[in-house]
């Protein structure tokens, strides 16, 4: 049963949607996971409620925010009920949208800022615009104002990364982020989180590519394809297994699968480049040698990282957790083959080191996400100048003299004097 929200002021009746509430909470400055969890709680509370007014819904959310959020988030969420304040953002193509603090903060995170600092910086900019009565701003003006705020409130390095990220966003060049790691290192989770922050809609798992190939090629014809990456060696024609080093066997079996999956991985990357869309390719088979198969003579920007869990007890704990969360993953099978999994990880790390691929120790998810995004921005810095003129154009020329000697807050009133196209 869908709960109907009644807007008495507008005389409208619409179904309650968790996604809409999540976006409202993001605009109030709440982190994505906190906003999603709170919206889910409200949805559960309304499971047996056929109708609710918009004001009653707001009061219900306010009570939850009072228990879980800081004062600033609560004030921002309550603001529309008292005095609606909207800032319109006009793009270069003249499309108009409402300034979203959640999206602006995520954009700052995409340039390598920590979530807390990004949210704080966005709040500073938004509050100053509201304070000075700015109701409309162009994307160029907002971009330059953000740059000045970062330069003065955070630091020149953060401002430079922001400019490089903005220049990349305007370039339409494709980005290919490759994430390697053995089972249990958190590749899929990390890839999903980064895709949300960087607004990447295309994620491809090598496990899925392997499943497709398994459907096309029967096990009797290609048995190595139908085993796990850490046990693929069992299908190799080895005359005297007892004379071979187990670590070497694991590595050879893995490489045999990598060679088979290199072609579909190359095809996925090629398609993304042809369509000029960013992509994340994740999986144990994303070996550093895959970079040699990246499309040549293209503008694709490739970033490769290897995830690892460097403590055996921690990796075992995660494998047990996989069995609890998703029983089909059969944690017992992973734990029974843990020595092979650990051996495969050691091989992957040695290969990453050989190919100068950054190794991310995924002990803390948020820290790992930040490190990978910073790796992306480090690579972008090699391709883009990070010049304010590149993203702000004539806005820079009109306020440059004042900007060099004034606080970024003092620049805000000048925005109202700039001509609109």
Descriptive notes:
By secondary structure, this protein is an alpha/beta fold. The protein folds into 3 domains: 4-81, no CATH class; 88-171 and 390-415; 175-381, Rossmann fold. The chain contains 18 helices and 11 strands. The protein has helices at residues 18-27, 32-45, 54-68, 71-82, 101-110, 115-131, 139-153, 156-171, 187-198, 206-216, 246-275, 312-325, 331-336, 338-354, 365-381, 388-392, 394-405, 408-415; strands at 4-7, 12-15, 51-53, 88-90, 96-98, 136-138, 175-180, 203-205, 279-282, 301-308, 359-361. The strands form 3 sheets. The protein has a 5-stranded parallel beta sheet, sandwiched between helices. It is globular and about 80 Å long.
CATH topology grouping of the largest domain? Rossmann fold
Number of strands: 11
The CATH H-level superfamily of the largest domain is P-loop containing nucleotide triphosphate hydrolases
Order of helices and strands: EEHHEHHEEHHEHHEHEHHEEHHHEHHHH
| CATH architecture verdict of the largest domain | 3-Layer(aba) Sandwich
Which structural class do you get from the secondary structure elements? alpha/beta
Instruction: Report the mean per-residue pLDDT as an integer.
Output: 86
Nearest-angstrom radius of gyration? 25 Å
Number of discrete helical segments:
18
Largest sheet, described in full? 5 strands, parallel
Write a brief caption for the model:
The chain is built from 18 helices and 11 strands.
List keywords for this structure.
Rossmann fold; 18 helices; alpha/beta; 57% helix; 421 residues; three-stranded mixed β-sheet
Topology:
Blueprint: E1 4-7, E2 12-15, H1 18-27, H2 32-45, E3 51-53, H3 54-68, H4 71-82, E4 88-90, E5 96-98, H5 101-110, H6 115-131, E6 136-138, H7 139-153, H8 156-171, E7 175-180, H9 187-198, E8 203-205, H10 206-216, H11 246-275, E9 279-282, E10 301-308, H12 312-325, H13 331-336, H14 338-354, E11 359-361, H15 365-381, H16 388-392, H17 394-405, H18 408-415
Parallel strand pairs: 1-3, 4-6, 7-9, 7-10, 8-9, 10-11
Antiparallel strand pairs: 1-2, 4-5
Helix pairs in contact: 1-2, 3-4, 5-6, 6-7, 7-8, 7-18, 8-15, 11-14
